[in-house]
């Protein structure tokens, strides 16, 4: 619905009245907002909210403060600050800054990228818990958790990695910031935007009502990155300070299916078959990398069409072939600016070369990600208790209250009463 | 009890949300295509007003309708906004009620849908990932196959090669030039007269020439129709081409002509008034100026026929001097080349008068910038970028860079410049795909942001009387002047990459391909430098005088010497002299290029070269 407002705003751009009295319009002047203050407040809020989540998860083992942080985050980072700067999109700025020394990386963007990563490395994904307005919004509308088959979620879990790789590819080639362009929630926070994306955002929210955080689990590229750091974090989130009694309650409570059950291992497979499979995957890993690189390199001309200069070149070429067709806005601008085909052709060639290189690298990474996933799924692990899978855990704190070991014992209650 | 309340509230709000959503969506689709100011009645009344502009009552009626339309639009927008807020509020109530309703039941254990055995789960996951990967591979292969050049029919290698003309110079030896390359040169006015008797090969030739696959088919049945000129999209909008960079994208350029015998001369006309400015081409228009002590005029000629289309005299300009400024004979009052954006054309004269006309010759505006204090006479050429006209107004008393709105002549911005008079002209360079406005003067080469006029960098490296203009390639800016030096500057940071002083131009401006930079001196040497290192690669001593600037077209360098001799060189590493011939008249202006044609201005005439 928010899109409707956006559409209406777009239509406001109609011409000013025709005055024939010689009336001169005054020069438009825009007040420059005091952005600096807000920027530092954003960073302060980010650190503060992540700090509170860390305290709630590690010290108190309670969900309540995290719920309120979700409310604050949606209100402040989401609706009030319109969802920008966001850590998810900052990946692209960082990637671009790493390959282009002329690109100015704002300090805020750097901090928005680095601070959640740092917290993830220290304490796990406390940013995802409720500080990220996207995750918080999904969490707040969640009413019932219907479970999805884990085989499906594992396969869908590959998407954020692919999304991350493509986002970096398009950022480093200065083509577009696809994470920002296809952000499903920004239109909702801004109460206006692309209709398709808002509908997609609404669909995700409807799904969030019935299953935990679909965007975070199956789309978020920053979540994929944080999961890496979270899995090797220095301090790890624990369900309880006491021993697990395998009651299974926490397993049911987790909205993102990050609590793994004890490994029953009922299907018997010969050890040699398992080893053979593992060795096979290790052997085809380089092949996957090379194949990915080759495929993506071959697809680079298509991928490069996302770049505006490449697209313009195609448009101009097409127009030169059919000059009787009406000029599009892009072509009008091209001819109006007196730009030359040879200059455009040289830019086009440079972009194609850039895409060939970065697509090859991206393809290699895609092969690597798929190969490592297959290898990881071929390794047997023993697990005797319910354990948190730290890469997937978003530190929402939902499980704490379900664990009977976290409840005060009758003796301690009596003691506190007396 | 409480649960029932929450359930009922959730149910009511759900109904409300659905109803409101349907209403808002319907409303959205209804208003989506509405353009509030494009009402039929208003348009009709406006047309009526155009025919009788004195009807005040009618004008008032139009204003009232206009106001009504705007008011209705904004009220509708406000209603929509209110609707969205109400909807959001209802969603909030709905979700809250639902959460309270399900409180305590949220995480009641589900029926386990996965097998208990994790190894089985992993096996299943591996299977899904493998199938997913195969799907991705198939999609990628599909894309690769669909974009394969084998499946494309609309692009030829030739076209692709043409786009790289600056970089990929085509080495053609002398004999080939003399004998073969006349194939595409059918004058445009003749193309339209072709009937079905034209052999297929000739039609192919036409297609090649015009780069318009449909043209032959279009013109074939049109024998009895009025001949239409074929207009090339390749423009030459300013001095030394678009962006004033010495490069043209024109194709099918003749390599031999002679005024005396009329070989490959499409038309030739005497110029009405003298001027050292160069011609400019846009569509079927050729623009140039001329001036003497009686008048200063802007001319438009038909590119196809050479017939004068219109002329516009620079008169009735407030502030225009009653006494003409003193200028030397070899500069004159009309040395500055005009600039056009395809919709308007602007000219400037040594009096400081600037005029702008539309393509039909209707004057749009005129203004005087103040008579420039210049001992030879003002000679900087104009340049248009976007909707801004740039004038390098470097003179002894008040040097400045002026940016005017092309449409209105209103000042966009002006930048005061340090230094003295100069006769150089601005150029646009693209650095990291961003445009920079480059000006050469005494003592510096300076880059500006063309949009704002902000100075980006400045390098003090020039001296003497600066006439030559800058050029650029791949973000590197080249500038050179006699009694100073030749410099290559990194456009990204304004740092000098290399410099040299072997050969320096006095009047002629440099031009560059990706590999070589060409300098034509007034004492007859054409030298080529390595653009990366500044090493002198090769020089040709021709014992002539160069005032005209070289133009790089179709992998060749075209350069007039003052005696009217045309010299054509290859722009590859070999830098060979491909042809050198007398054209018949002294030439100091730089020729203008478009597909299949060259327009040359000599001291007395203007003519068009188009191979027959």
Distance between the termini of chain A: 56 Å
Structural category of chain B is: alpha+beta
Most extensive protein-chain contact, per-chain counts: A-B, 87 and 100 residues
Oligomeric nature of the chains: heterodimer
Rg of chain A over CA atoms, rounded to whole Å, is 26 Å
Strand content of chain B: 25-35%
What Rg of chain B, in angstroms, do the CA atoms define?
Answer: 33 Å
Number of helices of chain A: 20
Number of strands of chain B: 33
Can you list the strand order of the major beta sheet of chain B?
1-27-28-29-30
Number of helices of chain B: 9
**Overall pLDDT of chain B:** 81
For the largest beta-sheet of chain A, the strand count, sense and barrel status come to: 2 strands, antiparallel
Helix and strand composition category of chain A: mainly alpha
Biggest sheet of chain A: strands side by side, in what order? 1-2
Report on this structure.
The complex is a heterodimer of chains A (418) and B (612). By secondary structure, chain A is mostly helical. Chain A has helices spanning 2-10, 35-60, 64-80, 87-99, 107-123, 126-131, 133-141, 150-156, 159-172, 178-181, 186-189, 195-210, 214-218, 221-231, 249-253, 271-303, 308-321, 329-336, 341-376, 410-417; strands at 259-260, 387-388. Chain A has two domains: 35-141 and 149-245, no CATH class; 271-319 and 330-377, no CATH class. Chain A contains 20 helices and two strands. In chain A, strands 1-2 form a two-stranded antiparallel sheet. Chain A is globular, with a radius of gyration of 26 Å. The termini of chain A are far apart. With 612 residues, chain B is α+β, with helices and mostly antiparallel strands. In chain B, 25% of the residues lie in helices and 27% in strands.
């Amino acid at each position: 619905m928010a899109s409707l407002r956006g559409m209406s705003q777009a239509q406001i751009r109609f011409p000013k009245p025709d005055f024939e009295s010689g009336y001169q319009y005054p020069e438009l002047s825009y007040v420059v907002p005091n952005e600096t203050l807000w920027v530092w407040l954003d960073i302060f809020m980010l650190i503060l909210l992540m700090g509170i989540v860390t305290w709630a998860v590690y010290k108190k083992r309670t969900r309540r403060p995290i719920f309120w942080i979700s409310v604050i985050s949606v209100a402040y980072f989401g609706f009030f600050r319109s969802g920008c700067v966001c850590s998810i999109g900052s990946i692209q700025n960082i990637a671009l800054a790493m390959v282009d020394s002329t690109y100015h990386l704002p300090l805020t963007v750097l901090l928005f990228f680095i601070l959640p990563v740092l917290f993830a490395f220290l304490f796990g994904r406390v940013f995802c818990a409720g500080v990220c307005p996207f995750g918080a919004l999904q969490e707040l509308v969640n009413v019932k958790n219907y479970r999805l088959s884990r085989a499906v979620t594992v396969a869908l879990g590959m998407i954020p990695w692919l999304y991350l790789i493509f986002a970096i590819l398009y950022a480093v080639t200065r083509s577009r910031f696809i994470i920002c362009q296809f952000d499903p929630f920004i239109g909702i926070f801004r109460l206006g935007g692309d209709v398709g994306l808002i509908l997609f955002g609404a669909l995700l929210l409807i799904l969030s009502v019935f299953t935990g955080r679909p965007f975070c689990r199956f789309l978020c590229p920053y979540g994929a990155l944080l999961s890496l750091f979270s899995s090797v974090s220095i301090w790890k989130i624990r369900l309880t300070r006491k021993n697990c009694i395998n009651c299974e309650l926490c397993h049911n409570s987790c909205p993102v299916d990050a609590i793994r059950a004890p490994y029953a291992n009922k299907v018997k497979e010969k050890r040699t078959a398992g080893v053979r499979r593992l060795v096979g995957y290790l052997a085809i890993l380089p092949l996957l990398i090379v194949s990915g690189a080759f495929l993506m390199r071959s697809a680079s001309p298509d991928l490069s069409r996302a770049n505006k200069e490449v697209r313009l070149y195609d448009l101009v070429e097409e127009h030169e072939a059919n000059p009787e067709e009406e000029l599009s806005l892009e072509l009008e601008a091209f001819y109006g600016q007196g730009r030359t085909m040879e200059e455009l052709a040289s830019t086009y060639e440079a972009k194609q070369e850039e895409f060939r290189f970065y697509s090859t690298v991206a393809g290699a990474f895609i092969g690597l990600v798929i190969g490592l996933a297959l290898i990881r799924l071929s390794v047997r692990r023993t697990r005797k208790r319910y354990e948190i899978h730290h890469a997937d855990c978003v530190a929402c704190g939902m499980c704490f209250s379900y664990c009977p070991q976290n409840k005060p014992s009758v003796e301690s209650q009596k003691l506190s009463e007396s | 009890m409480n649960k029932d309340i929450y359930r009922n509230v959730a149910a009511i709000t759900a109904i409300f949300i659905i109803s409101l959503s349907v209403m808002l969506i319907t409303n959205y689709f209804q208003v989506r295509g509405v353009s509030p100011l494009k009402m039929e009645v208003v348009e009709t009344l406006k047309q009526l007003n155009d025919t009788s502009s004195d009807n005040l009552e009618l004008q008032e009626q139009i204003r009232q309708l206009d106001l009504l339309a705007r008011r209705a639009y904004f009220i509708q927008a406000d209603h929509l906004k209110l609707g969205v807020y109400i909807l959001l509020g209802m969603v909030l109530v709905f979700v809250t009620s639902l959460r309270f309703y399900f409180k305590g039941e949220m995480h009641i254990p589900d029926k386990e849908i996965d097998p208990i055995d994790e190894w089985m789960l992993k096996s299943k996951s591996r299977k899904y990932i493998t199938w997913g990967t195969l799907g991705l591979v198939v999609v990628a292969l599909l894309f690769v196959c669909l974009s394969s050049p084998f499946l494309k029919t609309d692009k030829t290698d030739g076209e692709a090669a043409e786009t790289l003309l600056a970089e990929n110079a085509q080495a053609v030896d002398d004999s080939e030039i003399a004998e073969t390359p006349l194939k595409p040169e059918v004058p445009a006015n003749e193309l339209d007269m072709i009937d079905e008797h034209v052999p297929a090969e000739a039609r192919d030739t036409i297609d090649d020439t015009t780069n318009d696959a449909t043209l032959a088919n279009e013109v074939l049945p049109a024998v009895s129709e009025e001949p239409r000129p074929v207009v090339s999209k390749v423009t030459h909008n300013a001095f030394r081409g678009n962006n004033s960079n010495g490069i043209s994208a024109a194709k099918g350029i003749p390599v031999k002509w002679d005024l005396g015998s009329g070989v490959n001369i499409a038309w030739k006309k005497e110029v009405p008034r003298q001027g050292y400015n160069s011609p400019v081409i846009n569509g079927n228009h050729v623009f140039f100026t001329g001036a003497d002590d009686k008048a200063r005029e802007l001319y438009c000629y038909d590119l196809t026929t050479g017939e004068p289309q219109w002329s516009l005299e620079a008169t009735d300009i407030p502030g225009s001097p009653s006494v003409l400024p003193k200028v030397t004979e070899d500069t004159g009052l009309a040395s500055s080349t005009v600039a056009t954006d395809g919709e308007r054309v602007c000219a400037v004269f040594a009096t400081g008068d600037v005029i702008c006309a539309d393509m039909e010759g209707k004057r749009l505006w005129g203004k005087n910038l103040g008579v420039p204090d210049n001992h030879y006479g003002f000679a900087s050429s104009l340049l248009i970028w976007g909707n801004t006209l740039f004038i390098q107004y470097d003179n002894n008393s008040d040097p400045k860079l002026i940016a005017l709105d092309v449409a209105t002549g209103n000042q966009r911005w002006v930048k005061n410049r340090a230094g003295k008079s100069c006769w150089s002209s601005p150029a646009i360079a693209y650095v990291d795909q961003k445009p920079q406005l480059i000006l050469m003067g005494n003592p510096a080469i300076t880059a500006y942001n063309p949009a704002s006029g902000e100075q980006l960098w400045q390098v003090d490296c020039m001296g003497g009387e600066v006439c030559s203009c800058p050029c650029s390639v791949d973000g590197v800016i080249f500038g050179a002047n006699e009694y100073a030096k030749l410099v290559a500057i990194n456009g990204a940071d304004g740092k000098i990459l290399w410099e040299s002083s072997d050969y320096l131009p006095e009047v002629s401006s440099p031009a560059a391909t990706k590999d070589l930079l060409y300098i034509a001196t007034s004492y007859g040497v054409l030298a080529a430098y390595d653009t990366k290192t500044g090493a002198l690669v090769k020089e040709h001593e021709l014992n002539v005088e160069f005032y005209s600037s070289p133009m790089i077209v179709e992998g060749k360098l075209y350069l007039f010497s003052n005696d009217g001799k045309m010299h054509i060189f290859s722009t590859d590493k070999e830098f060979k002299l491909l042809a050198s011939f007398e054209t018949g008249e002294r030439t100091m202006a730089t020729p203008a290029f478009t597909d299949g044609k060259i327009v040359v201005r000599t001291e007395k005439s203007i003519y068009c070269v188009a191979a027959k």
